[in-house]
Amino acid sequence: MANFSASTFEAVTCPACGLLCDDVRISCDSTGLLTVSEKGCAKSVIFFERAVQTSSPSIAGKSVSLTEAVNKAAEILRTSNQPLFAGLGTEVQGMRGVLSLADKVGATLDHMNAYSSFRNTLVLQNSGWQVTTLTEVRNRVDLLLVIGTDIVSHNPRFFERNVWNKESMFDQDTSSREVVYLGGQNIDTSAGISPKGVKPTVLPCDTERLPEVVAALRAIIASKTLVAKEIAGIKTSDLESLSDRLKAAKYSVVTWVSSDLNLPHAELTIQNITELVIKLNAKTRSSGLPLGGSEGDYSVNQTSTWTSGYPVRSRFARKHPEYDPHHFSAEQLLANDEADALLWVSEFNPDKTPPNVNIPKIVIGHTNMHAIDADVFIPVSTAGIDHTGTMFRIDSSVSLPLGKLRESSLPSLIEVITAIEAAL
Ligand code: SF4
What does the angle CA 303 – CA 308 – CA 311 come to, to the nearest 5 degrees? Predict the structure, then answer.
């Protein structure tokens, strides 16, 4: 890093979770250290205030020039028959480069979060869904049903910006909004307490029993009569009361975080959520809202889908894109020896390191990852801090520009990928 000039940046977009809050205030001192001075959260502080260590490209742990590292990476990919590109912690421009290189070398692509995001994708592909945007939530929600999560551990400012916001476009008294937590145990529900001090309704159950509870709620909303008096410790009468309130609401929103639904066939529970939303829409307005998002997962899937027609867990080995959310899982491919070179990308997070594998490993990542064991390591700058970029928000309908807050001597991911492609 070099040539920092002390400055303060207003309305910075934070890429540390899927909310992409665009109101963060960041100060940069003359040494290049960033401080979140306003509108941040613990997650954004970790992201922006991380002390950056200096590192250089390396081959088998030995420092080399960028050109040598790029040439070695190109050699590994040129001689590979089944390259796997995984991790993929990046934004739109980085992913464009990754897709271009994948097409050239016939790689398979998988994002580090695909294990959970594909629970949502399967529902979308199987039956479609009615989901809404954060803007709609901010302006219209009157009953928020949170399923199996606390939200704030994933999206810390969700309630502040979208539920307890002081103003809405339609003069709604936002402090009167109702919040209900359904499922999960020992969830911190304090964010659901309204500004008037009204506590949320909490109907806890073990996460493993959530499929039964959600199926029961869907049945009740569909006017089925349940014989059981309780489901997973939740009184049927409480679910009936919830159903009545959802039907009476003018704009309910049902939200979940797929990574917290760590259940066998979680997609079926998500489908029950989205189907109960469809049922509610027969008489009133209701929408689903998948939350979470990290390491650029939504941006990577969007870019992949508009470029190739498929989200990740796709393959370019046959000169046309193929998609298989089960077979093209990086974990599966590595376990079955179906990959002979790994290219791992993580530009946002030095803690997202590649799996231990016995195949040639190229790592293009955050400069603080330099201690990892890799055949080739190339440190890159970070979008949203060291260079500009573009990211998709969790609701996928809004893309936001990421700013450059300081100078960096490191190349960006797209520059490295383009150089590797040229050296093939
Ligand atoms: S809630 Fe998410 S996007 Fe907003 S500041 Fe915190 S980490 Fe960044």
Answer: 60
pTM exceeds 0.90: yes
Ligand 1 and 41: CB distance under 6 A: yes
Helix, strand, or coil here: 77? helix
Element (H, E) at 36: strand 34-38
Residue 381 carries which side chain, given as an amino acid letter?
S
Q: State the average pLDDT for the chain.
A: 95
156 lines ligand 1 (CB under 6 A): yes
| 24 touches ligand 1 (CB under 6 Å) | yes
CA 263 to chain centre: 19
d(CA 303, CA 57): 27
Determine the atom of ligand 1 nearest the C-alpha atom of 156: 1
Asked if 338 and 356 count as a contact pair (C-beta separation under 8 A), the reply is: no
Q: Give the residue, out of 19, 23, 47, with the most ligand 1 atoms within 8 A of its beta carbon, to mutate for a pocket test.
A: 19
Please indicate whether residue 21, judged by its CB atom, sits closer than 6 Å to ligand 1: yes
- Write down all domains in the chain, each with its CATH number in brackets: 7-44 (no CATH), 53-113+295-423 (3.40.50.740), 118-291 (3.40.228.10)
pLDDT tens, residue by residue, 205-234: 999 999 999 999 999 999 999 999 999 999
Strands 322-323 and 376-380: unpaired
Q: How far apart are CA 335 and CA 323, in angstroms?
A: 19
